[in-house]
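Troubleshooting log. The previous run stalled partway through. Resubmitting the same two chains, unchanged.
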Amino acid sequence: MTKRKISPAFKLWFQIGEDYVFGEGAYELLEQIRKKKSISAAAKASRMSYRYAWAHIKEIEKHLGESIVKTQKGGKQGGKTEITKEGLSLLTRYKRLKELMTKVCEEETSQK
Amino acid sequence: MTKRKISPAFKLWFQIGEDYVFGEGAYELLEQIRKKKSISAAAKASRMSYRYAWAHIKEIEKHLGESIVKTQKGGKQGGKTEITKEGLSLLTRYKRLKELMTKVCEEETSQK
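Second attempt completed without errors. Output:
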């Protein structure tokens, strides 16, 4: 019988105490907000409803006690949304950790 | 406001293709079988029912196409269960990867 290829996989998230705060979905959403400067465009790209995306952001901000996005109201396009310094910090940490962990998995797999 | 401490956390598992095969629960169970040489004692230590533990092992073996435990029947104690070479290989891989990932998280956190 051919040996079946067993690969490692993982899920990464941030928590405060035991509370889940920020995971893959939030990472993708925030990365899209950073690029598109719009929550509705970011939600669409992340295949979330606007309502869900907004509620998810508010939930994260409640846990953190800080804002991760800031919206400037007005203008023809209905305002512009940018991620805050704290939002960018979370985004960067998540991305870096995910890359390091992916590398650990790939190195381990290549030794098999 | 005091800055809340944000810590990374992760879940690790093995998969074949897209199929989940072996995760934290299986790791704990197999580690206990290795130590106690008994599925019922291992299930108890892992806070699983014997029935659940046994079904979990069979499910993993079905995915792998190999046995991860072997049971010798008979004797006053109702036989002895040991993990196979393949079971030990999975156990060792999981443990090593988990340690490496934990280290990545700890190093990242200590820089904050």
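Takeaways: Chain B touches chain A through 29 residues (CB under 8 Å). Residues 85-110 of chain B form the longest helix (26 residues).
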